[in-house]
Every structure is written in structure tokens, then in C-alpha cells.
Amino acid sequence: MNEEKLSVFKLFLAADIGYKRLIKLIEAFGTAKSALNASKRNLLQIEGIGEKTADEILRIKDSGKAEKEVDKAAKNNINIILFNDAEYPEVLNDFADRPVALYLKGNMTEKDINSIAVVGSRKTTIYGKNVTSEFAGYFAKKGITIISGLARGVDTEAHTAALKNNGRTIAVLGNGLLFNYPPENANLQEKIPGFGAVISEFPLEQKPDLWTFPRRNRIIAALSKATLVTEAAQKSGAVITAKFAAEYGKDVFAVPGNIYSAFSKGTNDLIRDGAFPALTPQSILEQLAYTYNIYSGMETQKPEVSLSQTEQKVLDLIKTFDDGLHSDIIAQKLNIEIPETSAIIFKLELEGLIKAEPGQFYTAVRTTEQN
Prior knowledge:
By secondary structure, this protein is α/β, with parallel strands linked by helices. 43% of the residues lie in helices and 13% in strands. The protein has helices at residues 3-13, 19-29, 32-36, 40-43, 51-60, 65-75, 126-141, 154-164, 186-191, 212-223, 237-247, 265-272, 281-292, 309-319, 327-334, 338-350, and strands at residues 79-82, 101-106, 115-119, 145-148, 169-172, 196-200, 226-229, 251-254, 276-277, 325-326, 354-357, 361-364.
């Protein structure tokens, strides 16, 4: 680090000065170095700088704390990225409460702009684990980076599913990178940098605390194009992440759950309050394709759909009628019972192969190749 960057880092470490106060200091004194060398009297004239913060700035200047932190990061192959560095994630520049500094192990690439946060409760049911693995695994196969918080439960399932499917994943921690939490995820934390990155805005040996997790959650929401909550209790931290995402203008999806289960109270409440119900991973990507062009530069072909012989007959019949075909006519022509016809139509709609028209008529969805 050059002298000015080191001065910024020292101010960051002093009483955890946030971005807004840091900018006020730099604007008032011209440079971070000048702010670091200012008198206590002059520091106290800056809005938001109180006695405690001023004393911390004076104390850290010649303490050697920042230099030791830099050396320790280098020895552990951890990069310290400041808000004005070229390596700083561009997506974070739009946020007023962006981190001043990020500790990063691994790498972030341009492809990570196409990302989805997959989060949920630490305590999960088999249902929660299964849907998390299914959704995260599907996204990973489609080249979408999975972002989560490396916590127990849903976060662990999300990261693991990404790795199993040869995808990229980013873990945002609520503690320092040299503190393993939860301890059982130490191996997972070591593995992720080879397939993405582990990042934190906290000093290397910072322990997790109640106040650190909401700050981590805002970074998860800010880095992602959208947030998916797969299973969460009413007071889960994942609900906080979803609220940050909504405040940032990002799409929020939630997997519906058992109305009698406390483990699904958070997700069901999110849907009630306006989150999109996540019924399939395909439906999420289809919506994001319209909202963000998330498929840009990626493989966009949908996976092949497995259809039974009868389902294929229904689809082929609908394709022959450009103006659409009524569900009763489909049943009559193919000699299929109405309930079975309705079930087949529902599946074909869900797979995006047909679409409903007014009056229970159905038309085939034409692809570019068919036109």
C-alpha cells in the first residue's frame, strides 16, 4: 500500500469509521493522510466525529496496527481492497453505505455480476435443504454465481450445491477471514476461494457478533441481482437480507412453505408482503432475464424437458393450431379424461412450452429456431 492508501486503511480501522464519515474527513482535510495528522480539535469540527472517534484516530496513527494487519493478510493470501481501488466490486459503488474496505480471498470476476443470493435459516428441515440444493444447483449449472453467508443450514447447502455443480460461489462473512465460523465450515471456507471468493469487511480476527451479521447481510443483498429465501423463520437473518434487497430495488423471491411450520413463517410472510413466490428455479431466471438481462454473455438454452408419450401428443396437437386449442377439444381429440388433460396442460405451461389464452385456449410457445 502507498502512503495515502495506508492512511485510508488506518482511518477505516479507527473506531470502524464508515464510508460517509471517511468521505467527510477526506473532503475536509484534502487527503486521508492529512485527516490522520489533524489535531483533535480540528477532528471534532467534522460532523459525526465525536470524542471517542477522534481519540481512536490519534491513537491508531503510529500504533502499527494497520501495518500488522496488512502483513498478516499478505501471509494468508488475502487481498485488502479499498473503496477507491480498481479491484473494488463496481456493483457496490451505487450504495451509500458501501464498505470502506473488503478483505478478499480468492477472486471475483466479471461473470459474478450474474449472481443470486440464496439465503435462509440456520435451522432447516429436509424440505429446506432439498429446495436449497435444487435451486442453487440449477443456478450454478446455468452459470449464475451463488452468494450466501457461510452460516449453518441454508447457506451451507447453497455453497455446497454450487461447488457440486462446478459453479462459482461467494461467501460473505459476518466475522474476519481468519476466524472460522461456524467451525464445522472451516473446510468449506478453505475450498470456496478456488471456485469464487470469501469476503468480509471486518478485520481479520474479528469474532462474529449480533451487530456484525446485519452488516454482512447488506453486502450479500448489494452484490446480488436478486435474493432468494428458501426457508426461514420469522426472525431469521435471511429476512433482513431480503429487506435490504428490497430497499436496494432488487427482486426478492421466497419459496412457499408449510403454513403450520415455524420454519416457513419467514418465507410465507415475505410472499404476503410482496416477494415473488419461487415455485421453480426456471421461473426465477426467466423473470431476471427480463429485468436484468442476466443471461447476457451466458448459455441461454433451456434444459431438455422430459415428457411422457401422452404429454408429447398434447404438445404436438397444440402446435398444429396457430390460433390456439380449447382444453375440451384436446381431451376429445386424444381421448383423454378432462382431469388428466388439465394436469398435462399445467405441466406444459410450467415448462414454458405452451401459454394460456383467453377462454381456456392454449397455444405453443414458439422459439427463435421455430420462427
